[in-house]
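User: Teach me something about this protein's shape.
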Amino acid sequence: MRYENVHSKLQTVFPPEQAAVLAEVIHEAYTDLVKTSDFNELKEIVRELSVKMGELAEAQKETQKEVGRLDRALQELAEAQKQSETRLTRLEAVVGELAEAQKRTEQRVEELAEAQRGSEARLTRLEAVVGELAEAQKRTEEELRKLIGEHAETRRQLGGLATTVGYRLEDEAFKALPALLERDHGLVVKGRLTRKFVRDNRGEDIEVNIVGQAERNGRTCTIVGESKSQLSKKDVDAFIRKKLRRLEGVFDDVFPVLVTYMISQPDVEEYARQKGIAVYYSFDF
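Assistant: First, the predicted structure itself:
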């Protein structure tokens, strides 16, 4: 049995290294058996060896299958590793972006905090200004109260002065009107002209500044008058509304008269005369 033949056959089943070892073992065993001329034993050995070789070949096939499965598993593991590395790379990128976003957020928070500090400072200054304004307002209100009081006193004094002026004008009218009324309107004053309260047609007492009795053509009439420092159309209307109308029915015949220092408009005197009211000036007295 030649070594080359055995080795060649074994290579069809086993890897080269295993085939070489087996071929050498078989060749040595065959050589030893040939030397002892125990051919039958050699056949038995060869047969057993063939069986073992078959089992070994089958085991080798299973081993190769396992190796194949292991290779595939390793490839799958390698692919999974690549995917893991890809995902890890993406995750690292996302983490980097989050870190940058966090930095920007922290910077923005710091800017907002700084702005808040500025706002608080401005608010503090504003509160101080408002406090000062409130104090100034209090002082202004106090001054205003004083001015109101002074104004009220001034008005009271002016009112008193106006009353005094009015009374002074009326006092002069009491003396001068009898002659003027007789000259201009044929009225003869009986007794004296005066100021007094008269009960009106509502049953209320009203002050009449100039009042007295007079006769004209044998008929008695009542003189009703009022004085104004500066006579206006509004004063004429007020005299009619507040005095003449309220005395309608109280006296049978009323002769109205107004006395003044000056009129407020050129046509005031004509306005009064059109309404049946006689007008006299202080310089007539």
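Now, about its shape. The first strand starts at residue 188 and ends at 199. DSSP finds five helices and five strands in the chain. If you'd like, I can walk through any region in more detail.
User: That's plenty for now, thanks!
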